[in-house]
Design goal:
Layout (H helix, E strand, L loop, with lengths): L29 H13 L5 H21 L6 H13 L4 H7 L5 E4 L2 E4 L20 H16 L1 H7 L4 H16 L5 E8 L2 E8 L19 E7 L21 E10 L3 E10 L8 E6 L4 E4 L9 E7 L2 E6 L7 E9 L9 E7 L2 E10 L8
Antiparallel strand pairs: 1-2, 3-4, 3-5, 6-7, 7-12, 8-11, 8-13, 9-12, 10-11, 13-14
Helix pairs in contact: 1-2, 1-3, 3-4, 3-5, 5-7
GO cellular component, one term: extracellular space
Keywords: Signal, Thioester bond
Protein name: Alpha-macroglobulin receptor-binding domain-containing protein
């Protein structure tokens, strides 16, 4: 890996970019350099001979990130670069960290780092998205890791890849914030309503809750004692569902429909600019049929296939604006009456919310 480092200290990607967010949508820039530097810095138990070999690579990568810090406008790359510089104990990490709060969005009552390209909610602009994207989870995790790795954290207490990174960040936070003994008393007051909660070592993992009889204009929360606890006040409102513009377009065509053979053609294309990241297509298989995987060998765009329960899963490096079509055969393995239509969907692997559904039904499946 060190041999691939460029003279300016960067780590360019010579191959295909699967996780486009890591590269800011391209195969160059500080994203991959920060990622590689984090890997080198976190593996500090290597043999002395290896450490001496990569020490120069670390210094060059740090220098590259410092020189390009002012050019980073993407929040995801900024969060990743901040963590890399924090691990390196470089003074420029302070500058990078102070730029992160400007990208914060309140989402579901929690503060998260969020990318600038958000879905637009026309009818209810004050509402946040109901769930965080993979990119948002990673950004928040990198910010938390930066906070946990900095000396400020200690002094202040004296705050599939996204899942792993989030768990790593939370683990680091828990390690520094954990106490062997704690005792917290929380009082909640609202419009004559009052409720006391006691949190101790014996019930720390038990969720305690209370329903307010009416929606108050103000809720007062008072906490005493020592320890770390989370208090959440939630208001649930029924709102009109927002219609979002899909990022994919998909067509499903039943080319052949006989008693023992089905031939299905699916075509998907990317509607946004550029190309998608790694894409996944799930094809439901009607009851009593099984996909003939030999018919997929001619589809060079498919990089991997899996069978999960009653569906076929196809993986693509990317899907562009030109339709990617796949033709497959399904052969009958048993007689099943009144078989129902099956679903076909395509989505971005790193953004599962960006998906589109279609369905397919066959006449021969509905046996009397």
């Amino acid at each position: 890996m060190v041999e691939r480092q460029a003279a300016d200290g960067s780590f360019p990607e010579p191959g295909r970019v699967i996780h486009t967010d890591m590269q800011g949508g391209s195969g160059s820039g500080p994203g991959l350099t920060a990622f590689v530097l984090i890997s080198l810095l976190e593996n500090n138990d290597l043999p002395p001979a290896v450490n001496s070999l990569i020490e120069g690579a670390k210094l060059k990568a740090i220098s590259y990130l410092k020189q390009n810090l002012h050019t980073i406008t993407d929040d995801y790359l900024l969060a990743m670069t901040t963590y890399a510089l924090t691990l390196a104990r470089d003074p420029s990490a302070e500058t990078a960290f102070t730029r992160l709060p400007g990208a914060r969005h309140c989402q579901g009552g929690h503060e998260v780092l969020a990318q600038g390209d958000r879905h637009e909610y026309k009818h209810h602009p004050v509402l946040a998205e109901p769930s965080g994207s993979s990119r948002d989870v990673e950004m928040t995790a990198y910010a938390l890791l930066s906070f946990a790795a900095s000396n400020k954290f200690v002094e202040g207490l004296r705050c599939h890849e996204d899942t792993i990174l989030a768990l790593q960040a939370l683990s680091e936070f828990a390690r520094l914030a954990y106490s062997n003994s704690f005792n917290v008393e929380v009082a909640v007051l609202a419009n004559g309503f009052s409720r006391n909660f006691s949190i101790s070592q014996t019930n720390a993992l038990v969720l305690q809750s209370a329903d307010l009889p009416s929606i108050p204009s103000e809720v007062t929360v008072e906490a005493t004692g020592s320890g770390l606890a989370l208090v959440e006040i939630a208001v649930f409102i029924n709102v009109e569902a927002e219609v979002e513009e899909p990022k994919f377009e998909m067509t499903v065509k039943l080319v052949e429909d006989t008693i023992n053979l089905l031939r299905l053609e699916t075509c998907a294309r990317w509607l946004a600019s550029g190309k998608s990241g790694m894409a996944v297509q799930e094809v439901g298989v009607p009851s009593g049929f099984e996909i003939d995987k030999d018919t997929l060998k001619s589809a060079t765009a498919i990089k991997r296939t899996e069978t999960q329960d009653s569906k076929l899963v196809l993986y693509f490096d990317e899907i562009g604006t030109t339709p990617v079509c796949v033709t497959m055969n399904a052969v009958r393995t048993g007689m099943v009456a009144k078989s129902k239509p099956v679903a076909v969907r395509v989505y971005d692997y790193y953004e599962p919310g960006q998906c589109v559904f279609s369905s397919s039904g066959c006449v021969s499946c509905r046996l009397c």
